[in-house]
Structures are given as C-alpha cells and as structure tokens.
Amino acid sequence: MRWKISFLNILLLISFFTGCSTDNQEFFEAENYFSSSYAEARRKFIGVSLGSGAHIESLENPNKGPSGELLYTDIALFESEKAKNILVLISGTHGVEGFAGSGIQIGLLEEGIISELPPDTSLLMIHALNPYGFSHIRRFDENNIDPNRNFVDHSEDPRENKGYEVLKDSISPESVSFFTNIKSLFRLMGYGLKNRSMSKLKVAISRGQYTDPDGLFYGGRFKGWVHNTIEYITQKYLFQAERVIVLDFHTGLGDYGSCEIITNEKENSEVYIRAKKIWGNKVKTTYSEDSVSIHIASSLKLALPSMLSNKVEVTVVSPEFGTLSPLKVFWALRSENWLHHHGSKDHPKAKKIKSRLLQAFYPDDSDWKVSVWKQGRDIVKEALSSLDIKN
C-alpha cells in the first residue's frame, strides 16, 4: 500500500498529535475553498455544485480570458425555482472581488448547506457575475464599465459628476510616473481640503462618472454584461418567489478582515428594518456616515427589486469585507486602470501592478481568507434562518 505524502497531510498529522486537530483541520479546509484564478474557481464551483445536485445554466461571455479560455457566468439552482423563498448568493460583480465570494459559495456547498435549506426554500448561486473582470484581475467589465454604476436609465442624459471632471487627470491619468503621482496626490488632497470634506473627494472619485470611457468608476452609456445578466436571471428564476434575499459579496472597503453588511436604503425603509432584524449591528446604510461606502444610486442593490413585482418582498445587501487602506486600494485601481488603457501586459511593471490590485481585493493571507469564510458562512445561515420563519 502506497502512502501519498503532501505538505497538507503532514501538517494535519502534526496537528492531530499536538491535540489541535479540529481547529487546524477547519483552517486548512477553509483555505482550500478559495482559488488562485478564475479558471480554478470555476472548476471547483461546477464540481461541487453538480455533486450537490444543482441544475446549472452557464452564460458565455463574448470575451476570452487572459489565456484565451472561455468565460462564463454560472448559475446554480438548488431545489425548485417555484419555491416561495429564494436566497441568492452572488460572487464577482466587481470581477477581482469574486475570489472571496466564490470561496464562500464553494465552502458552503462543500459543508452541506443544501441539507440546511428550510422548507419551500431554494438556493440560487450566481458565480462570476463579471467573469471578464474576475479572469483578467480587473474590477470592471470588458467595456470598462463599473457594474454598480451601470444601473441607470441610459435613455436619459448621463448623470454629472463635476468633481470627477475637475480631478479627471489625477483620478485616471495617462501617466503614472513618480512626478505625476506626487502631483495627483497633492491635487486630490487639495480638493478635499478646499471643500472642507473628504466625503466630497470620495464622491468625486467613486460615485460614478459617465463621460470618460477610459476612466475609473465609469458607469457606461448602455447596459453592460452584469446589467443584462441580472435582468435575465431575475425574470427567469425569481419571478415566482414571495420572499427573496440577495447577498452580493464584495471586498475592498473597511477594516482588514472585518465585514459590514451594506444597504443603499434609508433607515426607515422596510429593507433596512428587515436587514437589521436578520443581521443586527453589522448592517449599515449608505445614507449614514457610519458606513464604509458612500451612497451609490446606480447599484444592483437598488435596481434588482424594481425588476420584480412589488408584491415580492426583496432584501438586497452587500456583505463587504475589508482589505487595505482606502488610499492603497484607490492607488491600486488607478495604476491598473492606467495599465489597461495606456500600458500593456508586457510592460515591465505589469505583473507588479496586477499583483497589487489583487492584494487590494484578495489578500494573500490565510487568516484573512478563513475570517472571510467564517463570517460569510454565518451571514448566509442567518439569512436562511430568517426565511425559515413563517409569515
């Protein structure tokens, strides 16, 4: 009989003989739920979904991955689409942020979440909603559209962001030389000081802009892949439901490893009240300065409920997991955006720039991954418990 020795097996044996096998085994198993590429994440997700009895529909994106691979948004339905209650879990709305959400989805299936579904409840997982961004290590889609700035009426005149227009050359520069970076930093800080508000600077940078197709946080002038895909999924899978909870997983805002559950609804809204009842003080609204996010009026969270009948009780929130400081995250986005539009994959700094962007949204840290997994698992189970309560 041959023994297959691996580093992981050795560590598990050591942990067993030192009396810490349970905690360490959980740690190693949790880390294995996460992936190092879109292709690996998709392979794991499809495999465990089929093994859990899912009906899978794969929507092919017209673009290719960095190695020429096909790209898909995969939809996995567990139980019946005719169920009265549906819990929806989304990964990868913002591309590169999909590594975290994918890990949570895979972990839940590996640990048998399907056996915990309440009566008359279905689970719908949307894996890699923005597969282009996921595979290419970008936050944005193939048209540089930020999906959470794209849910607007494109027949109307584009929304203005005067702050972005003033700071455009500093937010989305054509050069990232040392001199340009220093100049941009002083200009950005000066804008905040002049307006006596760092909040106004945040709005200028990240609220969304519709005039610069090559710039950061571009909302687009037409419906992007994510917008069209969410409309399709909503009409096909959610229209018969009476209660829907949507968890759209994100990373990049907040303290390292912490989680805030974000809603774009006011504190007196039914959505906010329901969310607080389910998840308690983890819930924050973007109408409050307590949230790590500014208010985004063109987000999936606000748009999805309008795609369903007003008779459907819809609660859409974004669990947001913190990574690096806001400045480091912004600088990583700024550099990667420059590389995408003005550099090339063969640029001497390309690998470093992509690595920094990945670290900004998916830190190479086992403790961070395990923390994200545990918090994500608990958030999902709390959502299921709320659906188990009869009206």
Automatic annotation (TrEMBL):
It holds the Pfam family DUF2817. This is DUF2817 domain-containing protein. InterPro entries: DUF2817. PROSITE patterns: PROKAR_LIPOPROTEIN. The keyword Signal applies. Residues 1-20 form the signal peptide. The lineage of its organism: Bacteria, Fusobacteriati, Fusobacteriota, Fusobacteriia, Fusobacteriales. The keyword Heme does not apply. Keywords: Signal. It comes from the Bacteria.
